[in-house]
Write a structure and sequence with these properties.
Layout: H1 3-17, H2 22-42, E1 57-68, E2 71-83, E3 88-92, H3 99-106, E4 114-119, E5 122-123, H4 129-139, E6 140-144, H5 155-159, H6 170-183, H7 199-210, E7 217-221, H8 229-246, E8 249-254, H9 257-260, E9 265-270, E10 273-274
Parallel strand pairs: 3-8, 3-9, 6-7, 7-8
Antiparallel strand pairs: 1-2, 1-4, 4-5, 9-10
Helix pairs in contact: 2-8, 6-7, 7-8
């Protein structure tokens, strides 16, 4: 039997059921796919740290203030929490709640006004710019909403960008890039430029780049903000895979409650404070 003919007949019957309203049919199909993907991701068991385990990240009374004339504005105000190894923790809140400022301080991209950020026993709030840069390159990988891939570099070269701060042979660098591309389902795209990739593929490339130096912590700022629901679900599955295979601790900033609810734990920011 001609499979193509069967598919066409099946679609014709579906169109009859929808009174030839193609848009309504496609909306319902998309909604069904979304529900199945959300179910698949949410069925993954949440990770619970073993009793007595020491936290990897300790935040105490962390604050970040800005001045607007004589007025002092608290972007983050006396926030305290802990994150344990291998946890996936979502930081959520409305626009302007302070979640991105908090994430930037955790990643050493911004200095706090007051308080402590201890990562793997090191208070990064006290480090000089040079030392915090070294610590960040070794310990933390970043994934952003807008990918930030270099447009004139191939996917393989983009993945290897972090190798510029470590001493490694070119052969080893390429082997690591290919290993990560394989893990992210991009092995056939190594020589492609970013403009030749889909949004989901570019974000997977950004994740591979972030993992290049084997960081203990992966920080993701709105990693699904530019993706459709299908690619968002795929990225979340990748984060769970990264945690399980590399023992990576993952912090995700997101305004999407559906995504936040799929993390092991959720922290909610409001007006610079944890709720």
């Amino acid at each position: 039997m001609d499979k193509g003919l069967v598919k066409r007949e099946y679609l014709a019957k579906l169109m009859e059921l929808y009174d030839n309203d193609r848009d309504a049919l496609m909306r319902d199909i998309a909604s069904l796919v979304d529900r199945e993907q959300e179910k698949e991701v949410s069925n993954v068991q949440k990770y619970v740290p073993p009793a007595g385990e020491k936290p990897l990240i300790v935040v105490e009374e962390l604050s970040r203030y800005y001045k607007n004339g004589r007025e002092k504005i608290a972007a983050v105000n006396k926030v305290s929490f802990e994150v344990f190894p291998k946890e996936i923790v979502a930081i959520t809140g409305t626009s302007g709640s302070g979640k991105s400022t908090l994430l930037h301080m955790l990643g050493g991209l911004d200095k706090p006004t007051a308080g402590k950020i201890e990562i793997d026993g090191v208070n990064i709030a006290k480090l000089s710019d040079g030392r915090i840069s070294q610590f960040r390159n070794k310990t933390i990988g970043f994934v952003f909403q807008f990918f930030y891939l270099q447009p004139f570099l191939s996917l393989e070269q983009n993945i290897m960008v972090p190798s510029m701060v470590v001493k490694a042979k070119n052969r080893d660098r390429k082997a690591r890039a290919r290993e990560l591309a394989q893990e992210m389902g991009l092995a056939e795209r190594l020589k492609h430029l970013p403009k030749e990739l889909s949004g989901g593929q570019m974000q997977r490339a950004a994740i591979a780049r972030a993992l290049f130096n084997r960081p203990k912590i992966l920080i993701a700022d709105e990693p699904t903000g530019n993706l459709d629901s299908a690619n968002s679900a795929m990225i979340l599955r990748l984060f769970q895979k990264v945690r399980n295979e590399y023992n990576t601790t993952i912090l995700i900033v997101t305004h999407d409650e559906k995504i936040a609810n799929l993390a092991d734990r959720k922290l909610t920011m409001h007006d610079g404070e944890l709720q």
